[in-house]
Design goal:
Elements (H helix, E strand, L loop, with lengths): L1 H15 L9 H10 L8 E2 L4 E2 L9 H12 L15 E2 L4 E2 L4 H15 L6 H17 L9 H18 L7 H5 L3 H8 L8 H12 L7 H19 L23 H4 L5 H14 L11
Antiparallel strand pairs: 1-2, 3-4
Length: about 290
């Protein structure tokens, strides 16, 4: 969970050049000079300023704006994640205030869509492979026979990232991605062990605190009061309950396809058709109308 967040922060920070999260810079380019690799990306010193040649991971100002506009215009089902629109700063072309679950949503679904029209194809392909890997290990069903192939694929994915990203990008968190498949093999499915539900509920409990000197007492009293109100509202009509809102689909009629295709309902359908033919004799021959 936290590995996914840190990797997502590194990718987003490097692509959009977010201060504090960007893995590229003069120090990273000097590392290339000391290692003697990627000579075309080494810093070029001028009289007044130092020029850093654009690498495969660098986006132009227009491309950054395009990526941010893609995130800004994305819509997801209700309750799927937080509103990504509120995390995008179009003025600065950045993503701000990303939480763990936001990074999870980006790596699982949204990031491959946002970068599909930017970056060079090899770099884009490597990032997309990494997103597909996180999507595979976080699934609710994982085929054990495919874990070995998945482990081999993530090694190849990291090797592809090493070809197109600076060495400073590969910190300990990126290295730990290699061991995630082994963790799934030993401990079981990931979604049984992650902390997203607990962290989201902690946000609810933090909202109960009105007196910061007595946080435990505030949480206890507010919780008891909410439970009492919830119990009372069940016995009152036309009163909405506290807490989790009722589903929007509640009260909507269910599809008739299941009812009309069962043998138990056929006698009632025939009886209804006889009533229709009797009540509207002039439409008896119009089977389409019936």
């Amino acid at each position: 969970m936290h590995i996914e967040k840190n990797v997502c922060d590194s990718i987003i920070g490097t692509l959009l050049e977010i201060p504090g999260k960007n893995k590229d810079g003069i120090a990273a380019r000097l590392d290339l000079l000391n290692m003697g690799v990627k000579t075309d990306l080494q810093p070029e010193y001028g009289e007044k300023r130092t020029h850093l040649p654009p690498g495969p991971w660098n986006l132009s100002r227009a491309e950054k704006r395009e990526v941010c506009n893609s995130f800004y215009g994305m819509k997801v089902p209700e309750g799927y994640s937080s509103n990504i629109k509120n995390l995008v700063s179009l003025q600065d072309s950045r993503l701000l205030g990303l939480k763990s679950h936001d990074c999870h949503t980006l790596m699982q679904q949204l990031l491959p869509v946002a970068i599909r029209s930017v970056l060079e194809k090899p770099a884009r392909y490597a990032i997309t492979r990494l997103c597909f890997f996180f999507n595979a290990i976080c699934a609710k069903t994982v085929d054990v026979s495919k874990l070995d192939k998945l482990e081999e694929d993530v090694v190849v994915t990291l090797c592809l990232l090493e070809k197109y990203f600076p060495p400073s990008f590969f910190d300990i968190m990126v290295h730990l991605v290699v061991h995630l498949v082994r963790e799934v093999r030993l401990c079981g499915l990931v979604y049984f062990r992650w902390m997203y539900p607990f962290e989201r509920y902690m946000k609810v409990l933090k909202g109960y605190v009105q007196n910061r000197t007595r946080p435990k007492g505030c949480i206890a009293k507010r919780y008891i009061a909410e439970e009492a109100v919830e119990f009372c509202t069940q016995h009152l009509s036309d009163v909405s309950t506290v807490g989790v809102p009722s589903s929007q689909k509640m009260g909507v009629s269910k599809p008739l396809s299941g009812c009309t295709n069962t043998e138990e309902v056929l006698p009632y359908i025939e009886q209804h058709m006889i009533h229709i033919r009797t009540a509207y004799p002039k439409f008896r021959k119009r089977t389409k109308w019936l």
